[in-house]
Amino acid sequence: MEFKLFDLSIVEYAFFITAVLIILIGLYGALVKKTLIKIVIGLSVLDAGINLLLISVGYVKSGTAPIFSPALIKDMPLTLENIKKLSEGMVDPVPQALVLTAIVIGFGVTAVALSLVIRLYRHHHTLNIDEIKNLKW
Amino acid sequence: MNMIYIVFIVLLGGALLTFFANRISGLLRDTFFLLTILATTVLFFTKIHIGDTVSFTLAGLNLKWGLDAFGWYFSLIVLGLGTMAAFYALSYMKGKDRLGYFYFSFLISILSMLGILMSHDLVSFFIFWEVMTWSSYLIVIYSGRNVQKNGINYILLSALGAYAMLTAIVMVYANIHTLSISEMINTYPQFSHVQQVWLPVLFLMAFSVKAAMMPLHVWAPGAYSDAPMAYTSVFSGALSKMGIYGMVIVFVSMISYLPDDTLFKETFAWLGAITAILGTLWAIAQDDARKLLAYSSIAQLGYIITGVAVGTDLAMLSALFLAALHALFKGTLFMAVGAIERQTGTVKFTEVTGLIRKMPWTFIASLLAIIALAGIPPLGGFVGKWMLYESLINSNHYILVIAIFFASTAAFLYCYKFLFGFFLGQEEKEWENVKEAPALMVLPMLILAAGTLVLGTFPGILLKPADAAMQTLGYASTEGHLWSMSILFNEWGDQVLLRPLVYAIAGTFLFFLIILTVKGWKNTRYVSTKDISSSGEVPLEYENLTFSVNFYQPFLRAVGPVMKKRMIYYYREFGSGMEALFDYSRRIYNGNGQTYAIYVMIFLVIILLFKNSIFG
Amino acid sequence: MQEILQYTWGALVSFVVAFTVGITYMGLNRKITARVQNRIGPPWYQNFFDVLKLGSKETSIHHGVMQHMGPAFIMVTAVMSLLIIPILNDNRFFPNLNFHGDLVFLLYIMVFGPLGMALGAGQTGNPNSAIGVTRGLSQMVGFEIPWVMALVALMIQYKTTSIVDLMNLQAETGRWLMFTSPFAFLAAVLAMLGMFRYAPFDIVGAPQELASGPMSENGGKYLFVMMSAGSVFAFAKLTLYVDLFMGGANNLIILVVKTFILYLIPMLYGIVSPRYRTEQAIRYFWGWPSLFGLLAILQAVFL
Amino acid sequence: MVGTPVLFIAIPLLAAFLIPLLGFVWKESVRILPGLVLLYLLYLAVNLMGQVAHSGTIVEVIAGWAPPWGINLVFSPLTGLLTTLMILMGFIIWIYSYRFKNIDFREAVKYFILLLMMITGSVGIVLTGDIFNQFVFIEITSISAYALTAFYKGRDSAEASFKYLIIGSLSSMFLLLAIVLIYSQLGTLNMADIADKAHLMKPGFKILALIFFITGLGIEAEIFPLNGWTPDAYAQAPGPVGAAFSGIVVKAGVYAMIRVIFTLFDVSGTHQFLIIIGMITLIIAEMAAVKQDRLKRMLAYSSIGQMGLVIVAFGIGTEEGVFAALFLMLNHAIIKSLLFLSGSYLVYNSTEKYIHETDGLAKHLPITSFLFALGAIAIVGMPPFAGFWSKWSILSAAAHSNMILVIVLILSVSIIELVYYFRVVNRIYFFPKQKEVEPKRPTINALIAMSILGILILVIGFYPDSVTGYLHSASQSLLEKGKYIQDVLSTGQLFIQ
Q: Are B597 and A31 inside 8 Å of each other by CB?
């Protein structure tokens, strides 16, 4: 299997550009916005962008689901050549698995972040990150 | 098992036992301490012979320990002074707390010094060197006074020196792939020119810190005066000699290869002389006896350094002789100060006076030591100074002679101050009930002081091992050669020419003393120091007749310009500048999480921008 | 044994000579000073009476062992200097303990006595004594510099540290060192001003201020020994200068003449001078005298 | 065979989930179970180390999918050494914190679960042979670390944790980007396979991936300027967690970074880059540490500095340099943990953890103070303690590569380090105690844990040969890239045939 990043169609480019845009938006949120909630949102957006990028790597235009169903295999012997032949036209399953994992992780991180935000708000009575600077130097 | 191991195990085990025995009982602790040091001394001088070696491998490095005549000579200083100081310490330290800690550090520092003298490879040399540093540091901070100032100064400068040495050691190791000191010396001529210059510089940096040479001496006054006097005698007498030991090796085995136009030796000889002069001047200005002796130690080591740096046969001999002698008299003096401190509770000349009748034995020991320090015949100090002068004159260092002479003349000033300040002058009521120090403190002092007396007339006792040490270093030398080196020695073969002079001095002195004593024996009586004539009036009871404040004010006015700023002032300025810089640098961590995130992005962008130059 | 007896006899004679001459010089000093100041002054032999009076007085007090030993210390210095410094050229009679390098030895033995006496003075408890001692020691550090420079210059120039060698050299060439090494002579003579402690360098004993300083608690036998030692020591020092710079002397008459001429220098300089404070004195010695010393060394090294 | 590497991950994960359940049955089991697990794993690790030394690297295939397709665990001399070290440190920290939150059962459950998860994650980072799997383990470690940092409710711990979280999220973003780049180019996630095919990548992408990796993993490895979170997190986390950070988590981060640089790609210039960045980290951190007035913050900066030094040593790149770096990692884990453990007793009852609150505590806490002093002396590299040997090996490695400037800088920085450590030790021993400070006597299990570390320092110091053999084979195994690839991929071929 040969994977290429840049000889892609417009649609595929669109995936990448969108993903990069989302990442940039997320970064903007995380790095520039002063409110803790917005920072957390920015981080989540960032996560989403990365996941989109990840999934688009495995995208094959008009590909099928990567399942070797009995209908597909029929009575072919499971040699390497056959498997290769069959898997052409399937989307790559690995990025999907990765994205699933990444989403779960992102969820966990966001949950922890939000709980921390609550704690910070109770402690400091503000959500402005510039005012939460008890620990420095 | 080899005896060398056993000596080290005895010392280490003894130190640990002493430390833990402290919890059980004081008597047990003292016994262990004394037994350890005595056993070490006995084992060392009876069982270890010159030429014994052992070698083993540790962490892939071949380490070798052994004893040669040169090391033996210095071990004599270490163990001789160490044993005396140990006896002294038992009485001096009585009743203080943290004694286990003190005795432990004491023994470990003795161990480390023996280790340095027995190391035949650079790594064990360095290890023992560092052990010596921290064990002595532990004692410097023992009293708890000024730990943040004097303690840190000491450890900081020691580390500076030690790391300079470490740099040199790894340079050597990378070059010749062996750590043996003799290999290093043998291959030294083949090193590149840059290394030939840098190696001795780095090594000498380390050694000059311990030998308290200008401008690396700033730790010494504080450290010497803060350590308990029982240890300071070892500190100044023996530990600083480790610096001299290293210097001798470097000078003999490395710098002698350098071409003369590098002026290495001259520079060092002059640094030694300047150290001697400034040390003396500062000693004169002190009102605290410990500080006075500390500066005096710096000055005395300056002479020794000069001797080493000049490096002719006689100069080296004088340096070695003075090194041992300095241990004797400075050991005595620090012990005397300790005795006074213990009996009166103060060591300030401005506070305590007129102890001569209360502490006569301490006075006698101090008097002998002071005479030896001042280099006045017939005591040992004169022999050493003489050899130094003669070697300087013979090797055409004329200006250096004058500098050294100035320093030793000015030394009379603080010598007199020491004796006058403590023992002479008005006998004030305040000190009426002071008693002589316990015998255990007085005896070591007297023994050491007697050593200086004996060496004045029979320097051969010490010159023979010194000569053997020099033969190890490669000075073509036989015993006959030794005696023909100085005009002091030539006619009497194995003893000095000074003998008839000594007899004449003693004869004259006794003759006039008898005259003075016999004449009017019945009528002359002792009167107190209050009973004096002051321009015909009899002073009243309340009149203060003690003269001790601003003792040498006129002299200090005359030399004022050289003493405006102390060297430590510049170090302090540098230090506080650095701290300000450090304080500024940590403001990078400004506490804002978002800023940290922006740092990450900046880091990324910078790498991306320069990726072609970074990852060629 | 014979030898030792002879030496002792010679030593006694030289001591008596030095004592007599020294005391006479001191008396002359008083007389001349008085004449210059337009007074009549005591007779030149007045100091003999003074010493005799002190010697015969009963002493009833002392302040301790060190004070008791102090005069003996100073006497050791005087006698040892006298024994080491050759009194006459090629002398047979007077004992001579000199050896190669006695110049350095002399430098040390010359401070031995003053230090010992300083200890004695210290024990008296009289603050004036101690103040005088500190001044004396400080001043000593001052004048030792040009003095040592002069000696080192001689050592360099003639490659010897022995007084006898220097005397023989002058006898052979017939030229006095004060002419061949003028700078060394100048430095040495200026240092001598300090050694004799006459004005302007008399702040050590400053009679009006310190009640004669280090001596102030001593009387009777102690002062007797001190004065004797002082006169012997003065003669020994003058002899040393004569030996070093003026070709020595072949008999006692010439020696007395030469020493007296030398003695006139500090004396006359003193008569016309006020008094320096200690730091002024020290700075004085580290000024011109040391410069001359330096010139002497340069001359010795380069010429 | 006593077990396989997969147990290192499976057992503690299982235990972590069992803890709350067992807690209902018998409360004490919450405390005992992690210890039993770690003890067993320690036994296993030691056994496997013997086996590895005897018969070479163990590669274990998970779930039957052979490399390069499936996930595999690699127990080589290097990873084995680090695993053993981490488990050992984990075990000691467990001993130390056995009585932690003695009263509050719920808190204790949380603490032990999170601690176990963090250790598991770190061990997983080291053992795995798959980059995405490594990413997952990094996230497991990070999330438990966020939670542990914010463990104390009263203090500013939430702030520290939040900073850590922001930076940590960026880290995971960069890691994912790097993984995307590699996968899009090579279509594989197996480290050995990537290493094998790395030359097929377009150079631009390769360098981009490397940069993303360095940035992402550099955050975990605390290199400057990516380490803004570190001092806060170390200072605010509970004492044993600080020890775990410096003894376990950072080590995993450094390992991951080094694995990427040494095995995955060989881009020229990386080594010099490591030296420079390590040096900057070292200098800035030690400079910042001097003026700290809080104990744990000072220790944190010191920890950053030491990591910088480790990276410098790796950057030297020779076998000697790698050996020195691993030696320093080992020593640092032991010594810095000791400092954190004893240090947190010295400031136990203080809210602000000021250094001056430790004044004169030596009289009240003799053993703790002694161990702290021992750690301080050891970490600045005073012989004959452990720190000296690692410092010596770094310097001699640098000297063999003719890097005199590096030597001079390292030693100058060591002097700074010496000053601030000795200042603290002096305070503990010689300053008068402050009246309002109430020293807390350490519990017996804490004393045991600290003493073990102290003894280790002495053992390594007096007899470094006890560890150098392992370190040498570990450093060889890191440098023999070809052997690593072959070891892993041959398992796959065996499987196919």
A: yes
- In this structure, are strands B525-526 and C61-62 parallel, antiparallel, or unpaired? parallel
Nearest to C149 among B382, B402, B554 (CB): B402
> Can you spell out the DSSP letters for B289-345?
HHHHHHHHHHHHHHHHHHHHHH--HHHHHHHHHHHHHHHHHHHHHHHHHHHHHHHHS
| Residue D339 counted as domain residue | yes
Separation CA D309–CA D394 (nearest Å): 9
Whole-angstrom Cα distance, residue D205 to residue D211? 10
Q: In sequence order, which residues have a C-beta less than 8 Å from that of residue C159 and are 6 or more positions away? A: none
- Chain A contact for B192, CB < 8 A? no
Question: D and C: touch, per 3+ CB pairs < 8 A?
Answer: no
Q: What is the pTM of this model?
A: 0.90
Testing the interface with B: which of A117, A129, A131 to mutate, by most B Cβ within 10 A? A129
Q: How many CA atoms lie within 13 A of A101 on its CB side?
A: 18
Peptide bond before residue B221 is cis, with ω within 30 degrees of 0? no
The reply to whether A132 touches chain B by the CB within 8 Å rule is: yes
Question: Does D293 lie at the interface with A, CB-CB under 8 angstroms?
Answer: no
Q: Do B555 and C278 touch (CB under 8 A)?
A: yes
How high does pLDDT run on average in chain C?
84
- Which residues in chain D touch residue A95, judged by CB atoms under 8 angstroms apart? 183
Distance in angstroms (rounded) separating the CA atoms of residues B355 and B341 = 12
- Taking the Cβ of residue A6 and every Cβ of chain D, the question of whether any pair is shorter than 8 Å is answered with no
Chains A, D: CB contacts within 8 A come to 97
Q: Does A135 touch chain D (CB under 8 A)?
A: yes
Looking at chain B from residue 560 to 599, which residues have their Cβ under 8 Å from any Cβ of chain A?
A: 586-587, 589-594, 597-598
**Helical pair C127-158 and B398-423, crossing angle rounded to 10 deg:** 160
Low-confidence ranges of chain B (pLDDT < 70): 1, 260-262, 476-499, 534-536, 616
Lookup: tokens for D53: 């030394």
Identify which of B160, B167, B608 has the shortest CB distance to residue D407.
Answer: B167
Question: Which residues, other chains included, contact C186 with Cβ-Cβ below 8 Å and sequence gap of 6+?
Answer: C289, C292, C296
Q: Which two tokens stand for residue B306?
A: 């000069």
Q: How far is CA B288 from CA B293, B337, B372, B548, in A?
A: 9, 10, 21, 12
In angstroms, the CA D406 to CA D398 distance is 7
Instruction: Give the mean pLDDT of D296-323.
Output: 91
In this predicted structure, which of A32-41, A127-136, D40-49, D394-403 has the lowest mean pLDDT? Answer: A127-136
Topology of domain A10-131, CATH: Helix Hairpins (1.10.287)
Which residue shows structure tokens 């010429």? C303
Strands B53-58 and B61-66: antiparallel
Contact D291 B59 (CB under 8 A): no
Domain chopping of chain A, boundaries = 10-131
Nearest to D159 among A92, A105, A120 (CB): A120
- Residue C191's domain comprises 2-302
pLDDT at C102: 76
- Answer whether B touches C (≥3 Cβ pairs < 8 Å): yes
CB contact at 8 A, B237 and B294: no
Residue-wise pLDDT for C86-120, tens only, equals 888 766 666 666 666 678 788 888 888 788 888 88
Structural domain count of chain C: 1
Q: Residue with structure tokens 């040393």? A: C240
For chain A, the distance separating the N- and C-terminal CA atoms, rounded to the nearest angstrom, is 52
- Cα–Cα distance for residue pair B390/C100, rounded to 1 Å: 11
Distance CA B49, CA B66 (A): 9
Report yes or no for ipTM above 0.90: no
